[in-house]
Amino acid sequence: MSVFEHPEFDHHEGVHYFEEPDAGLKAIIAVHSTALGPAAGGCRLWQYDRSDDAVTDVLRLSRGMTYKNAVAGLPFGGGKAVILKTPALAANPELFRAFGRAVDALGGRYVTAEDVGVSVDNMRNVRESTRHVSGLPQSGASAGGDPSPWTALGVFLGIQAAVAVHLNRDSLDGLRVAIQGVGHVGLHLGRLLSEAGAELTIADVNRKNLEAAQAAFPANVVAAQDILFADADVLAPCALGNVLNSVSIPKIKAKVIAGAANNQLSTEADGDRLAERNILYAPDYVINAGGIISVAREYFEKGSEDEVRSDVGRIPVRLEEIFAESAASHKATNRVADELARRLVTAAGTD
Ligand code: NAD
């Protein structure tokens, strides 16, 4: 099947395949849209069962970045990269230098940063080959560095907004939150929620990450297969995508879903399923924009950590607008957010 017939192909401006056998690099970079600026989005290092799954992932994730950057008001289009992991492939410096050469070959149409499986250190190696990279360590109070604490802050503020609207609660004290995945974002989110008095249930398939979280805050641990269905007020998916689908949704007990993972819904119709069950869904790319907000200020060398904090503080305002429009129009929140994002991108294209 050619990429043009792929069900997730959405008029992407470019889908680029790169291979450097000596470095072990096999990567795909998808540029979905540059209407609002260079296509920005993280690089994921992941082991896919089939290379077709990597294509599906990068096509969906890059479109999601276009929507995320548009709704966050950033001067970025949408793109994403995946590096295909094999059991023998370690995240070594030469792999990321080679990936940097791939990014550089696109001449600035794509800007990369960290995503799942990729660290700040890896981005340092990317920087050796290209300047079109963000999420690097910064000095002093300038914006930059690991985006995940900012993503976690945005999710935390989004949870506050969602429970105020849907559960009529103005405090997180005693709120029961289930976090799926306590990696970079989930760990920071757990800390913030715990400090605010929330009662946490967590799960992770990685024992080290689970232990780090247990050392960081009190939490009830459940098996990975049970976390989506935990007795909780809020479910915060912070692992991988496609967790909200026709099989899982009927069994979810939480009344609010608000987490960091990209592409939480398997299909658009899954947003309708949540709405039918009166579960308030905070659209993933709206609530998880904190990291890319930091990345944007770093990349354009504009601003300080304080300004990033202030920008991230606007995430709950955008969510409240989406929740209000959803309530007024009886459309699911994901559909309201997608329509808003498409309007913004189309308007930029006709300027
Ligand atoms: P991460 O890899 O650091 O953490 C993900 C965690 O989820 C890991 O600990 C992993 O073991 C765990 N996990 C995987 N499958 C699981 C399962 N079935 N059940 C329970 N745990 C499972 O990644 P991250 O940077 O924390 O990102 C988490 C999610 O948020 C991803 O979907 C990512 O795309 C999204 N996101 C991250 C950022 C960011 O700033 N890091 C920004 C926006 C969106």
Provide structural commentary:
With 351 residues, the protein is of the alpha/beta class. It folds into 2 domains: 3-67 and 76-127, Leucine Dehydrogenase, chain A, domain 1 (Rossmann fold), CATH 3.40.50; 148-288 and 317-343, 3-Layer(aba) Sandwich (Rossmann fold). 42% of the residues lie in helices and 15% in strands. It has 12 helices and 12 strands. Strands 1, 2, 3, 4, 5 and 6 form a 6-stranded mixed β-sheet that branches. The protein has a 6-stranded parallel β-sheet with strand order 9-8-7-10-11-12, with helices on both faces. β8, α6 and β9 form a beta-alpha-beta unit. α1 packs across α12 and α4 crosses α9 (290-299). The structure holds nicotinamide-adenine-dinucleotide (NAD). Nicotinamide-adenine-dinucleotide is lined by residues 115-117, 147-148, 151, 180-186, 203-206, 209, 224, 238-240, 260-262, 288, 291.
